[in-house]
Amino acid sequence: MSNPYQTPDPYAGGGYGQPQQPGYGQQPQQQPGYGAPQQPGYGQQAGYGQQPPAYQQPGYGYPQQAPPPVPVPPQPYGATPPPNSAATAAVALGFVAILTTCFYGGFLGLVGIGVGIAGLNKSNTTGQGRNAAIGGIVLNTLAVLISAALVVYILVAAKA
User: Fold this and answer.
1) Which UniProt keyword terms apply here (predicted)?
2) Which of 36, 40, 61, 101 is an S-S bond match for 105, by CB 3.0 to 4.6 Å?
């Protein structure tokens, strides 16, 4: 303000067309004149024998808020739980048991049925591999039935 007789502009420096009001418990700011004592500004220390400015409550406006929490990175798209290895093993044992029916397919079939049941129980908790476990149980049961039929055929053929 260069002219001391000019009236102050009420819209200067208030932001959004509002004059700047002092906060609750704060004294209105005065420009230092000839008789007004100057108080040290921010970052300046009071001289010897002067009192530092008293603690003032924050003014009107939005309260200070804590910073927002750090967001957790999302899981990659299409991430799937680990596969049900017991169900996969039951299917593999079922194929091997059917192929080796003449030698020891019945024993592998019994082991495969047990592994297939374990895979079915695991699929109830994880939701993965249910169809493979059922397929393994079916293949192993088929291998056991083929082995039993082969044993019966051999015994009947030996008597004739």
Assistant:
1) Membrane, Transmembrane, Transmembrane helix
2) 101
Q: Per the domain annotation, does 47 fall within a domain?
A: no
Please say whether the beta carbons of 82 and 128 come within 8 A. Answer: yes
Q: What CA–CA distance (Å, rounded) separates 18 from 60?
A: 14
Amino acid at 39: Q
Q: Is residue 125 part of a domain?
A: yes
Residues 16-53: tens digit of each pLDDT: 555 556 556 666 555 555 555 555 555 555 555 666 55
- Tokens 């929490």 correspond to 69
Residue 135 covered by a domain: yes
Asked, for residue 62, whether it belongs to a domain, the answer is no
Rounded CA separation 65/83 (Å) = 46
| Number of domains the chain contains | 1
> Which residue is it, tokens 């044992």?
93
Q: Hey, what are 114's tokens?
A: 């047990």
